[in-house]
Amino acid sequence: GKRIGVLTSGGDAPGMNAAVRAIVRVAISRGCEAYAIFEGYEGLVQGGKMIRKFGWADVRGYLAIGGTLIGTARCKSFRERSGRLDAACNLVKNGIDALIVCGGDGSLTGADILRKEWPGLIEELIQNGKLTVEEADPYKHLTIVGLVGSIDNDMPSTDVTIGAVTSLHRICEAVDSISSTASSHSRAFVIEVMGRRCGWLALMAAISTGADFVFIPERPPSENWEAEMCDVIKRHRQLGKRRTIVIVAEGAIDRNLNPIKPDYIKELLIKKPLELDTRVTTLGHTQRGGRPCAYDRNLATIQGVEAVNAVLESTPDTPSPMIGVNENKITSEPLLRAVELTHQVAEAISKQDFRRAMELRDPEFAD
Ligand code: ADP
Questions:
Q1: 208 DSSP assignment
Q2: Contact yes or no for 172/193 (Cβ under 8 A)
Q3: Which atom of ligand 1 is nearest to the CA of 11?
Q4: Atom 7 (ligand 1): residue with closest C-alpha?
Q5: What is the per-residue pLDDT for 33?
Q6: Across the strands, what pairs with 309?
Q7: Measured in angstroms, how far is the CA atom of residue 10 from the centroid of ligand 1?
């Protein structure tokens, strides 16, 4: 059987533990060995106790716990070839020939780079005496499989990422709480939610809570949005609405690519004609989720199963897969293409080609 390493990397997301649990247990039940790599790529680079063989019972209780119990980190050294050289050495020394990475686009980019460099890294380790030819011989090929863990739901080519739905639930609960006090005092609240390049959380939260206005990076408002927003809010107030909720994604921008900041919106609301008693709330890290909702536990579990399947089916010629979900079906597609799409989306947004960004995210958007 294969020896499968699993790590979680980048921002933590609820459901990552469920993914690790599924990977460990399915690996064992298929006659493979499972290794947990602690603290993301940091554990891979450092090796030693950071790489531990996991048994069935080591992931007991993982389903219901938020964040990631095997830890995550931003790892600078993995961005350098020298760090990846140490990582490759530690993988071989532990006999690990397959790696499942659960993280965002950065983490998956790193995984793909490691796989591409792999033969060269192994050769170099032999040349500088860190590995013998015999030691290295069984490790000519490294299997990589990606799972997307990200609360932002910012990966094109998958409908939902692990953690996004839990995060959305937390945001809705927070906005509901704020709504009670807003209605009581007849106040306005400008609420900043996470999402630097992706407005999914902001948009879904706005629909789910009946917000008055929402700002997202992908669709900057019209040129005279200030007046428009005030008109909309005024109309809502005239209809008897006692609370005003404006949701702003962290990465919200106007048509000149300038950030739209909650404090600026507040200034507009307290001025004439609205003159609303306005507060700004930044939801911050409560949005990272905590306890995963049932959807994320399920998604992470079935994707974890699929990730082990993908490891067992992979050959040296197949490109590294990324496990996604599209129209409710678990999918697998080349990791590299998915990662490239994220870079193209970022480029389209930076060029103000918002339509292109949406088309890249969702090909059906073009129709
Ligand atoms: P996310 O995975 O959530 O997008 P980051 O972009 O911070 O988060 O990436 C997490 C880690 O993945 C980084 O700390 C780094 O170790 C690794 N990584 C990211 N981008 C690269 C890259 N281009 N090359 C190598 N490693 C990378």
A1: H
A2: no
A3: 3
A4: 10
A5: 98
A6: none
A7: 6
Q: How would you classify the pairing of strands 143-148 and 98-103?
A: parallel
Bond preceding residue 334 cis, omega within 30 of 0: no
Q: How far apart are CA 352 and CA 331, in angstroms?
A: 31
Question: What are the pLDDT digits (tens) for 285-338?
Answer: 999 989 999 999 999 999 999 999 999 999 888 889 999 999 999 999 999 888
The β-bridge relationship of strands 213-215 and 329-334 is unpaired
Report the separation in Å between the CA atom of 16 and the middle of ligand 1, taken as the mean of its atom positions.
Answer: 17
The phi, psi pair for 147, rounded to 5°, reads -120, 140
Sort 102 into a burial class: Cβ within 10 Å, 0-12 / 13-18 / 19+.
buried
Supply φ then ψ for residue 18, to 5 degrees: -60, -35
Mutate to test the pocket of ligand 1, among 38, 50, 78, 80 (most ligand atoms within 8 A of CB): 78
Instruction: Look at the block and give the residue holding tokens 């997202």.
Output: 216
CB distance 78 to 44 below 8 Å? yes
For 93-134, the pLDDT digits (tens) are 999 999 999 999 899 999 999 999 999 999 999 999 999 999
Token pair, residue 228, equals: 């428009």
Rounded Cα–Cα distance for residues 93 and 128 (Å) = 15
Q: How far is the CA of 107 from the centre of ligand 1 (A)?
A: 4
How far apart are alpha carbons 57 and 267 in whole angstroms? Answer: 55
> What does the alpha-carbon distance between residue 205 and residue 211 come to, in Å, rounded to a whole number?
8
Spell out which residues line ligand 1, taking CB within 6 angstroms: 9-11, 41, 74-75, 78-79, 103-107, 109-110, 113, 150
**Active site residue ranges:** 152
